Every structure is written in structure tokens, then in C-alpha cells.
Amino acid sequence: MIGSLLVANRGEIARRVIRTAKRLGVRTIAVYSEADAALPFVAEADEAVLLGPANPAQSYRNVEAILAAAKATGAEAIHPGYGFLSENADFARTVESSGMVWVGPGADAISAMGDKINARNLMAAAGVPVAPGTTDPAGSVEEAVAAAAEIGYPIMVKAAAGGGGMGMGVANDEAGLRAEYEKVRAFAERMFGDGSVLLERYFPRVRHVEVQILGLADGRVVALGERECSVQRRNQKVAEESPSPAVSPELRERLLAAAVRAGEAVGYRNAGTVECLLDPATGDFFFLEMNTRLQVEHPITELVYGVDLVEEQLRVASGLPPTFGELAPNGHAIELRINAEDPKRFLPGPGTITTWNEPTGEGVRVDSGYAAGTTVTPSYDSLMAKLIVWGPDRLSAIERAKSAVAGFEIAGPKCNLPFFTELLDNPEFLSGDYDTGIVGRMRS
């Protein structure tokens, strides 16, 4: 096992990685911005290094500052968490060329999956189902119009270099396509430095289901079940559950086998997630993207499978075998993302936390990044904590989630806890027969 680990991230994920590393006897190093100096993860690490101002470009995306901190503290390895530099292939290469261990997949796998068009084509060649769409970027709006005529409307217009629900639009006709193409292209150029645009068939009623994979040190790729991620606002997840209530044993077998093929196609190592769109009417699923990092929602897989995915990441990076042999799911888990945003329109509402009381009890886990007296700033994502519950079945997990939400006290910034009270009583959610439009219907 590696002896020291720098966590190149912040908030709840930095704290969560530090917790497992310390349990394993690994010396932990936090890096932080001036805005985050008072957050729990900074105090909980064995060492902490200030990177710079709040602006991510000067702190959490500042490669030179992070590498300097690693060198100064004698870090043997770097864990990138999620977001920021976690899917930056150049950063992964630089870490390894500097003689440190990168706790994540190889840079080649990150590169292969980072371009959505290249990823689609690789997956199709590996026998993984993909939605009808373009195999090359649509270089002009006229090319996009011609491609859409073959694919058929409605069309999803996507930034090829995008991810995390950013850089997407839907067009129902040619006029809509022309408008969305220009909008997505401009956004992609501004956000990702790459204006390439991908077109795919859009499915109005669809579920978002993903599979957790783990590429082991011996070269094998294993799948640790699926997660249902269809509760979304602005194409971004706010609640997840595992297993998915939409997935039958037969469909699960096909899903997991496809995810393993996807990992094998790029020689995948470490933790990753294969995201798919599921047509609930037909049971057909299509590859959406592969996230070459640890996902925000990884705790529900941990509770259902009884594994610590961060420990498994560190073991793979250290060349060690996994802690598990044959894996079998047990029970049901739900994660709710507690954000500093209003529960109606989901607009950010940062501020200083005056009250912070986390729920406790059997089957209840809270992965938090904040505490009373700390401040949620507008510089970063609004995620404050993840409330995760486990139960022997879906109904009991929902009941535990209701009690936990009622027992979570947060005051100061805006908070979306009231939304989850509403969601957990929503008949559509309770039935398990919902899709990515559920939040929109709740707000219509």
C-alpha cells in the first residue's frame, strides 16, 4: 500500500478519501484554497498546503501548485476525487512522469473516453449498444441538419468534450437544431476549449442507469451492480438509488456484461462508471458516456455491496488484489445530494452555515463537506453533503430516508432538503416507475 496520499480536491470528497486513507494508515495531505481554509477536510488531513485564491484556476485546477505541494510534502500518490482535474489526461500523465502514483485509470483511457464521439465509436466496435447518432463531429450547422435528417428528430445536441450534464440541448425540428447547434458549439468552445458537436437520437422518456466498474491490478474488469440516476434537475443528478427499480435480472446481466466490455475495450484500471440511457418501454439501453473517476454517488454501491471503493482504488493503484472475491448485492440504498440551493427553482444560495445537525441511526450515513460556522461560497459547486441510507428493501430504505431528511437540520444558506421531503412522498417516485422527467413534472 502506498504510504502517503495527496488529495487534489475539496469538500466532501476530499474528506471522504482522507477518512479511508487514514484508516489504512496512509499519511494524508490536503490542498486547499483561501476560501476553504476553515473546512473540515483541511483540519482532518495529516498535512495541508494552501494552493491560492478561491478561483479554481488558481487553486484546484492549478497543476503547478498541486505538484509543488506534492513534492514539498513527499506525497507518493495523488487522488483527484471527482471534478476539477480528475478526468484530465495530461494531469494524470504529469503525475506519473513525476514519479508519483495516479489513483485513477491510465491517461490513455481518460483520453479515449473524454471525447464523446471517439468514445461512442470505441464502444460500438466493442459491441456495446450506442444510440443512433454521428460518428464524426458535425463541422457546420448544415452538416448537422443533414445528419439529423438521417437520424430522425428529436435530436440531442451535445458537446463532444462535455460531461456532467453540461453542454447539451434538444431540438425537435430543423429550426430548433440550428439554434441549439450554435448555442452548444459556443458553450463548448468557451467551457472546454473544443467546439466539436455530436448529434444523437433523443428519447423523450428515458431512464439514466449506470454501472460501477473496477479495473483490477491483475487486468480483470469487474462490475459492481447498477445505480438509478434519473432524478435530475438541469440534466444533473440530485438523487440516486441502487439497485435500479427498472432493471430486471435479465436486463442486469446484459447491462453489467456491456459495462465490463466497455472497460476491457480501453484496458481500464481503477474505478469508473459506464453511464447508459434505458428505454423503459422496450428494455433497450444505449451507452451514454464513461466517467473515468470515482462518482459522486459511489456510496450507494458501497452500502449495497459492502465494499469501500476508495480502499479498492488505493489497492489497485498500489498493485494489490481487491479485498473481495465473489460479490453479491444486499438490500437497497438511496443517496440524496444536499445542495445549497432553493428547493423550487434549484438556484444556488450560498452563505454561512449557522446550524448543522446531521441525522444518525441504523442504515444512515452522511458524507459532508461542511459544518456549523463554515461558509458555502459561490466559487464552487453547491453540494454540501450526501445523505445516504440503506435498508433491506426499497420501501424500508425510503422510510429511513424520510426520517433522515426530517432529522437533518441546516440553517444559513439556502437548502434543498424540502425538495427531498416532497420527492420521497411523490407517487411516481414511490412506484419506482419514473424517468428523467420526474423533477420537471413535480415542478410543472
From TrEMBL:
Domain ATP-grasp: 120-318
InterPro entries: ATP-grasp, BC-like_N, Biotin_carboxylase_complex, Biotin_carboxylation_dom, Biotin_COase_C, CPAse_ATP-bd, PreATP-grasp_dom_sf, Rudment_hybrid_motif
Domain Biotin carboxylation: 1-444
Residues passing through the membrane, by range: none
Annotated keywords: ATP-binding, Biotin, Ligase, Nucleotide-binding
Keyword ATP-binding applies: yes
Any Pfam family the entry gives: Biotin_carb_N
Organism: Planosporangium flavigriseum
Name of this chain's protein: Biotin carboxylase
